[in-house]
Every structure is written in C-alpha cells, then in structure tokens.
Specification:
About 30% of the residues lie in helices and about 25% in strands. It is of the alpha/beta class. The strands form 2 sheets. An 8-stranded mixed sheet has the order 4-3-2-5-6-9-7-8, sandwiched between helices. The longest helix has 11 residues. The chain is globular. It starts with a strand and ends with a strand.
Length: about 220
Amino acid sequence: MLVMIREDFREILRLVRPGARVLDVGCGEGALLELLTQQKEVDGRGLEISAHGVAACMARGLSVVQGDADQDLDHFPDKTFDYAVLSQTLQATRNPRHVLDELLRIADRAIVSFPNFGHWSVRWSLLSRGRMPTTKALPVPWWATPNIHLCTLADFMALTEDLGVRVDSSAAFAGNGPARPIDPTKALENWRSETCLFLLSRGAPAERVEPGAVSGDLLVP
C-alpha cells in the first residue's frame, strides 16, 4: 500500500542531502526519521521524550534514545551532525531560545517548523470569539495542548536575529498544500502562513535554497 508523504516532510526530504548525519529532535514515532533513512540514506538518530514514541521508533529499527530537548541537547558534542531537525516541536519546549541555539551548536544546519500563531485564522478566532483558537495547525484545545510557547512568524524572525542565525530557506504551508517559498521579513506572510519551515545556519552567507518540487512523487512503501 502506498501513502502520500506529508508536505512538510516532503520539504524536509528535499532539503537534507543524501548520506548526511541527521538528528531528529522530538521524533515522535519515527515517521520522518524512517523516511530520511529510507529515501536519503542518512545516518539518522532520534531524541524523543515519550517512552511510547521511543518504543515505536525501535520497532521500526531506528536508533532513538529517550531524552528532553530542553536538557539533553547540552550533552551532544559540537558539530556532531550535519542537520538537526525540530519538526512541530519548538513551541512545546520550555526554553525555545536555548533549544534553537543548541541545535546550531551540535549541527551545521537546523530545520525547524512550527505553527504560526499570527495566521489570519488565529487572529480572527481571537477577535470574533475571544477564545484560544483551534485550527488545522493547532487542533488541540488550550487545556490539553502540549504547546507552551506559541509564537508568530515575526516572533521567530526576531529570535533568529537575536541569536545571529542565518535563514537559508523558508517556506509556508496551508492545509494540505505544497511548500510555498516566502520572504519571512514581509509582514503579509505573518498573516498568510499557517505553518512555517526554516533551514537555518551560522557562518558566512550561503546561496539561498528555495522551496521547489521534488522530481517524481515521494511515496511511503
């Protein structure tokens, strides 16, 4: 049976070079890490706080340890990985600034995605109902969500500037649509982007990597 890949996973697959050393932080049950291992032949490792998630990853044959991104990234040596991936997890960390800083200490590049609390649907829900919104990107009610540090696209860009982080690629997603390249400095994108994904690095300026279609359909066997 063939299942289509999530669009944000498709974009991450496109950004990661074949054979790279990759750490998937907050890897859940290992769906993304398995894709990277199978389709990009990466040397993949995972860090997951949930014992259930670790067990599910091990059942897939993945190399994953139980750990907390807020504390356990500190134990990795500098530049252990080519990429550190934090997919839909930044907003669930206790200290997002420290976590982002650590990602770019232990890896040459970081791939980070998060739901944008500045999206028009969130703003409209707050304005019209006066309650914490639930959307496709934020489906869990406030009293049950693991998200403790929700941010907007503008907030995230301010954090990258504060840390001296370079944005090498940026994309937005809405619903089940494909990656759309964005200029994250434009105020309009803070309204339009439901979910954002960034390729980040430090050091000398590099050629920008724009989102684009991958040749052929990426499928999960």
